[in-house]
Backbone:
């Protein structure tokens, strides 16, 4: 009937508006990313995700394939920006200014904690991107990169090994979907590293029974 038709039209208009706004923020984020302004890129991608969530397009379990693909790209892009955060000198200076700390031991500790927080966010965003589209090779690659970076900072041997294995699997999946030399090289490197660590763990100390 006419009321039902009007409702469908309004839904489509709202959907189109959300996609247009999300696309605008995505483009903005891509621009910041290319300029290596990672904090600004994260903010723009977050606004793009929020635009889709307010529809709500990506909170709907029945959302269509187009929306899932867009959501996967946005989360993967935000993960990439979070991974690059550690090299954003402007973000570092802004953090020091906002917190009123100097670029000394204390400031460096604060910065490292923030970089670690961004790595955690990158891992989570990459996983969300994969839930929306398991065939997003970049999301798998960024998950592997985040896990590798986190493993390098992890002092717990067991947790470190778990992260390395998960990173290896992520790089392997990325290579299956979109073969790249750097992805294959990272996967091979991690497999070698894991094998060496496991072999070392099996070696008993001299004098042990």
Residues:
């Amino acid at each position: 009937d006419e009321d039902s038709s009007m409702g469908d039209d309004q839904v489509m208009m709202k959907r189109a508006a959300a996609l247009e706004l999300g696309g605008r923020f995505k483009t903005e984020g891509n621009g910041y990313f290319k300029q290596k302004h990672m904090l600004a890129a994260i903010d723009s991608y977050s606004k793009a995700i929020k635009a889709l969530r307010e529809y709500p397009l990506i909170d709907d379990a029945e959302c269509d394939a187009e929306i899932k693909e867009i959501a996967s790209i946005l989360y993967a892009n935000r993960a990439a920006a979070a991974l690059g955060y550690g090299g954003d000198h402007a973000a570092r200076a802004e953090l020091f200014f906002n917190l009123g700390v100097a670029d000394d031991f204390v400031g460096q500790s604060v910065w490292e904690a923030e970089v670690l927080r961004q790595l955690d966010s990158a891992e989570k965003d990459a996983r969300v991107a994969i839930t929306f589209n398991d065939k997003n090779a970049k999301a798998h690659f960024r998950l592997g990169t985040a896990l590798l970076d986190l493993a390098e900072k992890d002092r717990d041997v067991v947790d470190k090994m778990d992260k390395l294995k998960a990173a290896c699997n992520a790089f392997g999946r990325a290579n299956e979907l979109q073969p790249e030399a750097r992805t294959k090289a990272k996967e091979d490197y991690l497999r070698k590293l894991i094998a060496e660590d496991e072999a070392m763990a099996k070696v008993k100390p001299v004098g042990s029974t």
